[in-house]
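Why do we bother with holo predictions? Because pocket geometry can differ from the apo form. Keep that in mind while you read this record for manganese (II) ion.
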Amino acid sequence: MYFETDPAALFAEEDKSAIPIHAVTADSLDSLDAKTLAWAKATGFAGKTGQQCLVPGEEGLAQVLFGLGSGKGEGKDFAHAKLARTLPSGTYGLGNGFENNPHARLAWAMGGYEFTRYSKGRTQTPVLANALSGQERIVAEGVFMARDLINIPANDMGPDALETAFRKLGDAHGAKVLSIVGDDLLTQNFPMVHAVGRACTIPPRVLDLRWGRADAPKLTLVGKGVTFDTGGLNIKPGNAMALMKKDMGGAANVMGLAHMVMASGLNVRLRLIVGAVENSIAGNAFRPGDILQTRKGITVEIGNTDAEGRLVLGDCLAWADEESPDLLLDMATLTGAARVALGPELAPFYTHDDGFAEALSHAAQKVNDPVWRMPLWAPYQSMLKSSVADVNHISTGGFAGSITAALFLDRFVEKADCWGHFDIYGWVPKEKPWATVGGEALAIRALFAGLSDRFSS
Ligand code: BES
Ligand code: MN
Ligand code: ZN
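The structure, written out:
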């Protein structure tokens, strides 16, 4: 397997003796048989959301009750996902109360994910005897891949290691992969990628993957692959730098999405581009006040070396745009402002295309992977004015940080039929039923659902 953590390990063959898990709402509690109800009550189980109750039988554990409270609310279909890490070792089966939950099995996979590259795993290893469907398995693999890539620390996930993972992804699906590394970025005209990444001893690079029939609709995905963000010369304070291994979260997410697209054989000509760099500090680092050339031909005044992601993406988007894709999507852990606006769970996205926004929002709801459209508010382009270059890459005044970053990117996209930009957080800061603290996939399940509707073969 070319991805590290395999969701298949959380599932077992169909098994008649599997211990059933029954979902119980506060209302359905009283319809349990008298013996079970007595046990539930005696052990303090009231069907509250997230409550679990192990019910004994003659030969050990007979059933599990899981509380769904009122049975309503955001993320309810994923509430039981945590059972995949809280139940004792054993083989379980979905019982009553999960009939109308289309995400019941996928939730188990998401909740059971565990990053074990550097430590021993959990000692409890419950498995579910309800197999994932083919599509669900592909989705879970994509999610796990994104989480793994983010969780691997920067000492083992530099630009070179990200390229290795990228090549493995391509090889597994028979795609064509190429990379442009180090000073070749200058001769091949990626000046901003080079400027951001050149201070790192591991050379910066642009990664490119092509897959699918040439005559299919062109889907191009672009990811920010900043494998560590020190802030550059505008160095981040320690607390702000602590999590910056996740700054390749955009790349990790588009790679996970690319896996879903290729594994399911969508009718697209896929292209995947990642700008893989570390934003380091050294004598040759780029500086505030520098004026950079760009692939697009416009000049950019550097206001702050910590706004590096949009520079990397600018060149990558310009390259992607040159072949006029039908759909161009980019994902990036681009701004702290996005997190301030929407928090870690709700993925902000930008597009000029109302149809795309609507279709995506619909798909997001369907698969429980929330997104929220943000405005490409044109008047704020004036915040990016520079007196010495065509554009400044940051706004002055600290207003609308996520919007102005998106507006900067907008300057590098011209020919794509439809463009969508995702300013994601890429991390779960506090345990959720469907995820523990760590790297996270955001919006790619929604995107995959939307893409599947649009491009199924
Ligand atoms: N990678 C960060 C953005 C980030 C920070 C995302 C924390 C998620 C959590 C990005 O490169 C950055 O540092 N952006 C600056 C831009 C500013 C200097 C204009 C930011 O958001 O503070
Ligand atoms: Mn930064
Ligand atoms: Zn960054």
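Residues 7 and 109 are 6 Å apart (CA to CA).
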